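Catalogue entry: protein

Sequence with per-residue tokens
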Amino acid sequence: MAGAHSVRVAVAQMTSINDLATNFATCSRLVKEAASAGTKLLCFPENFSYVGDKDADNIKIAEPLDGPIMQGYCSLARESSMWLSLGGFQEKGSDDAHLCNTHVLLDDAGNIRSTYRKIHLSYKESSFTKAGKDIVEIDSPVGRLDPTVCYDLRFPELYQQLRFQHEAQVLLVPSAFSKVTSQAHWEILLRARAIETQCFVIAAAAQAGKHNDKTESYGDLLIIDPWGTVVGRLPDRLSTGIAIADIDFSLIDSVRAKMPIAKHRKPIDFWKSASL
């Protein structure tokens, strides 16, 4: 059980398809499972509500945040009295040809508390997705949360800013990583981000398996502590389910006290003036 200075969280692994109702039913079941385990936050993967067979399908179903799709998930959060991390929602863009890949944080009353629009876009994604511009952080019962999405993981400077300018404690990284890149880089990058920032990475939530004939995700959800140790993982990387771990705030403090990189870190101006 979680101790006095820790909070229980859960992370979901699932295989979303091109059916909003089916995906919602899966998420509902996982919310109930997490709630029965006493968790305060459940983190879903990128594209949790829908994965289209074609890019145009994702644009077609995209909705504003006050639309019925997101409002259904707001109801789930409210009914379960649990915070939800919904990373990679197809939010309707400013024109009919684009959407925003939006990470939405809901509180335990079902209110939208934060929205982060994915900043780093792959070449393919940039053709139909509008990139975000703003870093987001929010205080919660699970500490200071800083949402990112999938491809952001490859850009460590984002996580450096979240840690050293925004005092992050918990980094959220919902994803739908491809099979080839995940086999080579997934766990390594996640553990590196945890070690570099001395934060928990709790939302390495993963799409898993084949969504359709053309799209396959790697799965393998991970929860990683500030020392880089994997503290949450499912027995396999393809099944639908949740992993549970406790966010131990005393561990965050201990790691940062024993290795005070925030004090030792050189400012950007130092490197600009340094001679080679």
Summary: Helices lie at 20-36, 55-61, 68-80, 156-164, 179-197, 249-258, 261-264, 268-273. The first helix runs from residue 20 to 36. DSSP finds eight helices and 14 strands in the chain. The chain has one domain: 6-273.
